[in-house]
Amino acid sequence: MANREEKKQLTEQHLYDVAIDLFCEQGYKQTTLTDIAAEADVSTRTLYKYFPTKESILRKFGKENIYSLKSFASNLPAEMPLKTKVLETMVYDFKTMFCLFDVSYILHSARDEHGMFARFELENILATESIYCNLFKQEQLNCGIEPNDQVVLCASVVMGLYRHCNDLYRFRKKGQLDEKDLRAFYLSHIDAIWGSLYEKLTTVQSGASPIANIDKHLFGSMDGLRS
């Protein structure tokens, strides 16, 4: 039974790797499930058992990277300063998302009129924001503050900064990743906002944040952060 399960996992990984390679080589829209099956040397019926649609392949990519990022952030040393935790999480996220293959090319070539990939990106943004929320929640607890809506707002600001930096950096630097340069680039932008962000995060609120109340249709309540 164990061997059968292991074989299934290896097959799924093989199909996934082949699909990602084809997406990069010939574009998402131009690649069909039949192409993937042929390149992987399996029947389309076998492929459908693991990935019934091309979208399911991209969703696997997103879920795996979110899980990896969440694990990385949660295992950062407790004594590490919060700003350093944010910086290291950004660097790890970039290395995972943009250095394995050109995911930006895939997503841009995959745009469709149904908005499926806009939803895909939004799901990943919100999932990543929740990781920063957890970092900020822990900092508030360390400061003796009951976690509040500021963690959501600060996470949103950090995520916006991260995406802005990525767009700038990927146009500014091409070719092999210089991790030291990337870290310095992120830090220069984090420094510009950190004072006011940290003050907001660690100041006890006199009432609920009106902006967070407006945004609860996106982020939900704080109940999940208190668990």
Q: Strand-residue fraction?
A: under 5%
Categorize the overall geometry: elongated
Low-pLDDT residue spans: 210-227
How many strands, which pairing sense, and closed or not: the largest β-sheet?
none
Q: What is the alpha-carbon Rg in Å? A: 20 Å
Distance between the termini: 36 Å
Structure in words:
This protein is an all-alpha fold and 227 residues long. The chain is built from twelve helices and no strands. Helix 1 crosses helix 2. The C terminus is likely disordered.
Short description:
The chain has 227 residues and is mostly helical.
List the keywords.
disordered C terminus, mainly alpha, 12 helices, elongated, 0% strand, 227 residues
What topology does this entry show?
Elements: H1 2-26, H2 33-40, H3 44-50, H4 54-74, H5 82-98, H6 103-109, H7 116-142, H8 150-172, H9 179-202, H10 210-214, H11 216-219, H12 223-226
